Amino acid sequence: MKKTTVFLLAGGLTAVSACKSTQTENTATGMNTETTTEATATAEAQLNYPETKKVDHTDDYFGTKVADPYRWLETHNEEVDQWVEAQNKVTFNYLDGIEFRDQIKDRLTKIWNYERYGAPFEEGGKYYFYKNNGLQNQSVLYVQNTLESEPKVFLDPNKFSTDGTVALTALAFDKDAKYVAYGTSSGGSDWNTYEVMEVATGKKLDDKVEWVKFSGPSWYKDGFFYSRYDAPTEGNKLANKNEYHKVYYHKIGTPQSQDQLVYEDKTKPLRNFYGQTTDDERFLILNVSEGASGANALYYRDLKDPKSAIKPIIDNFESEYNVVDNIGDKLLVRTNKNAPRYRLVLIDPKKPQEQNWKVVVPQNENVMNNVSFVGGRIIASYMKDAASEVVVFDTNGKQLNKVELPSIGTVGGFGGEKDDKETFFTFTSFTYPPTIYRYDVPNNKVTLFRKTEVDIDTEAFETKQVFYTSKDGTKVPMFIVHKKGLELNGNNPTYLYAYGGFNISLTPSFSIANMLWLENGGVYAMPNLRGGGEYGEDWHKAGMTPNKQNVFDDFIAAAEYLIANKYTSSEKLAVGGGSNGGLLVGAFMTQRPELAKVALPAVGVMDMLRFHKFTIGWAWVPEYGSSDDEAQFKNLYTFSPLHNIKEGVKYPATMVKTADHDDRVVPAHSFKFISELQDKGAPGNPYLIRIDVRAGHGAGKPTSLVIQEWADTWAFMYKNMGVNPYAKQQP
Questions:
Q1: Which of the four, 142, 160, 337, 400, has the lowest number of CB atoms within 10 Å?
Q2: What is the rounded CA–CA span in Å between residue 596 and residue 581?
Q3: pLDDT 10s digits, 15-62
Q4: Where does the secretion signal sit in this chain (predicted)?
Q5: From the candidates 470, 579, 627, 675, which is the catalytic residue?
């Protein structure tokens, strides 16, 4: 397909040399523990939370009365802003009092300061790549004439704003690489603005396209297709329900008011349309969705005939269809139709019935999670127990070879066009920093292109994969990472992180933030819960409504496994997750509050009865269900974190994390949840909320804010586990 880089994804909710810390002398576990004093515990129990007003509001769901006393926190007004300020004051006063927090931030800043590169890609005979010098808020796009020539800055997002909160979100070159269209977003919002730059001169044109969401610019001749919503009402652009997505064509040099409406459906307000052109600009493909769980319809227009209309290829939402590219007048499509682990088929859009499909690469025992068509070869990436394998086929589906990978981990890349002879990919794992390789397509030759150097002895750690048993007997895989020689004494601080939803797979990847945890003797555990895509659509459906409880059971069983096998104890266990993973943590802590010491739900979906009423929340109904349906309401009510907080229960030490500009999962979810928790939770542990301002769901967040957030997160975890990672060893 036409190469378009989109950094803000519409799908799910959608989250680091041989240096030993000189500030501590490591024990066998690398951690020095100290018992939290009674005085400290009492002080924490007496945290002076802001008084949160309650209103008399009750909803009736099929005869069940449900109080919603914090409904007023769903709006954006001065009163809510004052509440946010008051909550942040309590939280940051608490964090400021953690004596080793600054040491954590200093160490994070030091190890974060390493050069990070993206894989190069070719446009118009030149190579482009992203690079971050280390602590730059946003990565910079560079250009070079050859892979050996001196690179020059092409586009620097750090100049978009003074505080680094305006991010580059999309990038697409036209066919001749004369122009580039790029998207920006402010404060982490999903709303995008597209602008156009002349490649040769760097001159920005007057073109400006606004109110774009869940789209990417896709070029055709002297303009590009894109999708947008109507401008939202003033004052509610971060909360308004997103309806009536439309596809437009923007011609370079004209105002947006003259853009041609290409497609809309006035009868289906909750459909999204994502338009892309094939490499040769022969076809316009519309991916049509009614939810964020993967299934989509597929429409097309044959651009060879300017009078042709947009027609359906697939006009239902039973399966997933992803067009890789076209081969002549047929489309190469990756699909899970009658193949839950995906297969590759060739579809004639004029004869789209399944009996006319040609199977190019059939389904096998592993999940085909990505396909590219480069240099006349089909390059398919597979997941085997959540780790990558890459297989190369010819256009008839004959297996030619496998791409050699350095170890167990995750690959990304292999982008390019049909006639490219080379492509690049990035390989990473938990303790393997992202490393870029060059792949010679005709000769199946892999060479190291660029290695990442970090200030951490990555050889000091080991990764293992275990399979544990969930509540219903299902075997679930989990990666566990820790220092070599770790003593299984039941006393190791452990961070359990997961997601479990929207067909999204968690695979081994490098996190410089996690390396601080690991170098101080912590254990990092990542289970691949049902609801994800690690084993295909069947695994996904096993964690969708009405089966969502399976996901929470899998997470609970992971915690029980770590405790039973003496990696840790309940007093040294923290659980974390973001977005759908925030829901996961909320359900975990309300169902099994005694099982973990610390809970870190981030930008989570906490009000399962009203999530579909804000922004793009309606798209999650296929995944969760809807409170508008009686049976689904009853299911949602059983696990909705907001509605399952009980009076007088001692919950884990909790720091909810959200952002005031999050228009994916609106912050009201977190606002209402923490209000209920502070009101009902028994004293003994802190119940705090950390609210970023000028930030959103996570994408595009400046490096400085990311480092500060991680410093606060680790400090909160250590403090509530009774651990000082920088305490001097006692004799």
A1: 400
A2: 16
A3: 222 222 222 222 233 333 333 444 344 445 458 999 999 999 999 999
A4: 1-18
A5: 579
